[in-house]
């Protein structure tokens, strides 16, 4: 992770060039913090090996922006900032498991205000098959039923004995290549009280 700068405007565009290569993201940063931002992305970048993919999948290893004031907007295609193409506007520390574009391009736009930074974000990106939402993984201590990640595929989740499921029991891959929800989490019964307690005090 990196400490991002205040008053920064940064843009990255990720492009799937052909069936086995994703371009290095092009990036424009202004007015300050250019080098920092580049480092932020390159830290998490992963090159796609091979594949017949045509859309871009990203997932965040780390994410924390000053909630409500610093935002990362993610959009489909190459028209940076076009409101019609916005997929997600992220702030704070809650992020989707995966975000997938519908075209072969995805843009990321970081905007920060004049004060208070945070750790920033670390993102991995790769190319996946089109009309797919990508593999969201399986919850720790959980069991997943279903292994299709294409549009209209459904994944169902259960937790191992002694663990309680928090979140959605099933999720569907929507036509816009986004899962209908994050995968659930499985937590030990004893920890449930603390989970809700801490959720409460952090709100
Ligand atoms: Ca800020």
TrEMBL record:
| Domain named CUB: residues | 1-128
> Keyword Magnesium on this protein?
no
The protein's matches in InterPro entries, at most eight in alphabetical order, are given as: CUB_dom, SEZ6_CSMD_C4BPB_Regulators, Sperma_CUB_dom_sf, Sushi/SCR/CCP_sf, Sushi_SCR_CCP_dom
CDD domains, alphabetically? CCP, CUB
The cysteines joined by S-S bonds are 159-186
Q: Name one Pfam family in it.
A: Sushi
* Ranges that cross the membrane: 179-198
Quote the PROSITE patterns the UniProt record gives.
CUB, SUSHI
Domain Sushi span(s) in chain numbering: 131-188
SUPFAM superfamilies to which the protein is assigned, alphabetical: Complement control module/SCR domain, Spermadhesin, CUB domain
Keywords, alphabetical: Disulfide bond, Membrane, Repeat, Signal, Sushi, Transmembrane, Transmembrane helix
PANTHER family reported in the protein's UniProt record: PROTEIN CBR-CLEC-78 (PTHR45656:SF4)
Can you say what this protein is called?
A: CUB and Sushi multiple domains 3
Protein species of origin: Buteo japonicus
């Amino acid at each position: 992770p990196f400490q991002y700068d205040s008053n920064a405007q940064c843009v990255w565009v990720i492009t799937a060039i052909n069936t086995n290569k994703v371009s290095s993201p092009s990036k424009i940063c202004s007015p300050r913090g250019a080098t920092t931002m580049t480092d932020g992305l390159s830290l998490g970048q992963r090159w796609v090996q091979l594949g017949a993919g045509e859309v871009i999948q990203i997932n965040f290893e780390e994410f924390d922006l000053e909630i409500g004031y610093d935002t990362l907007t993610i959009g489909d295609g190459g028209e940076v900032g076009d409101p019609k193409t916005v997929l997600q506007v992220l702030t704070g520390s809650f992020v989707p498991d995966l975000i997938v574009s519908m075209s072969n391009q995805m843009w990321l736009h970081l905007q920060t205000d004049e004060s208070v930074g945070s750790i920033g974000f670390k993102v991995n990106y790769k190319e996946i098959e089109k009309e797919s939402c990508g593999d969201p993984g399986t919850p720790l201590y959980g069991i997943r039923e279903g292994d299709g990640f294409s549009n209209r595929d459904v994944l169902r989740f259960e937790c191992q004995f002694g663990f309680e499921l928090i979140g959605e029991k099933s999720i569907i891959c929507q036509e816009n290549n986004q899962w209908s929800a994050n995968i659930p989490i499985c937590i030990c019964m004893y920890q449930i009280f603390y989970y809700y307690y801490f959720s409460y005090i952090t709100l």
